[in-house]
TrEMBL record:
Organism per entry: Peribacillus glennii
Recorded coiled-coil stretches: none
One MF annotation (Gene Ontology) recorded for this entry: pyrimidine-specific mismatch base pair DNA N-glycosylase activity
InterPro entries xref list: MUG/TDG, Uracil-DNA_glycosylase-like, Uracil-DNA_glycosylase-like_sf
Protein name: Mismatch-specific DNA-glycosylase
Domain Uracil-DNA glycosylase-like: 8-151
Keywords attached to this entry: DNA damage, DNA repair, Hydrolase
Gene Ontology biological-process entries: base-excision repair, AP site formation
Length: 172
């Protein structure tokens, strides 16, 4: 199965970075396409998007200043199928993308994504004290997968800090 395309451009407000595409995303070519994934609901209810978008509209979020990538591009049924070598290579590729495109914020959709990227074992939800790439804020958020055992309201609460953070950056 082919990787799905990143949606990137220079100076994004937020770059969302997941583990890797689901099989459904690989089949459709769109980010967060699994019907059990709550990503699009979380963005809308967290005040990040003006309405609930559909996976087929993922590219249109570039107009809002939001992009998409993954630490590993190979679609799998579950993140535990990703190899150490894929994470190592993905970490280097992601650093290059962030350094090249210079988003204001990288939102890691899953604490494990950030841990594999940064090598840091313990990370709180929200903005991290020290970015891996200077000039870009690393923001850790829960995975939007339906397998996550947090209440959806708690997940949305964490994501709702993104527009507040973005407004504070834009006011500087």
């Amino acid at each position: 199965m082919e990787p799905i395309k990143d949606h990137l451009r220079d100076n994004l407000d937020i770059l969302f970075c997941g583990f890797n595409p689901s099989i459904r995303s690989g089949e459709t070519g769109h980010h967060y396409a699994n019907p059990n994934n709550r990503f699009w609901r979380i963005l809308h209810e967290g005040g990040i998007t003006p309405r609930k978008y559909r996976p087929e509209e993922d590219f249109s979020l570039l107009e809002l200043g939001y992009g998409f990538t993954n630490i590993v591009s190979r679609p799998t049924k579950a993140a535990d199928e990703i190899t150490k070598e894929e994470y190592r290579q993905g970490r280097e590729n992601l650093k290059k993308k962030i350094d090249t495109y210079k988003p204001k914020i990288v939102c890691f959709v899953g604490k494990g994504v950030y841990q594999h990227y940064s090598g840091i074992k313990v990370a709180p939800w929200g903005p991290q004290e020290e970015p891996v790439i200077p000039g870009t804020i690393d923001f850790v958020a829960p995975s939007s997968s339906g397998l996550v055992r947090m209440k959806i309201e708690d997940v949305i609460e964490i994501y709702s800090k993104l527009p507040v953070l973005l407004r504070s950056l834009n006011e500087k």
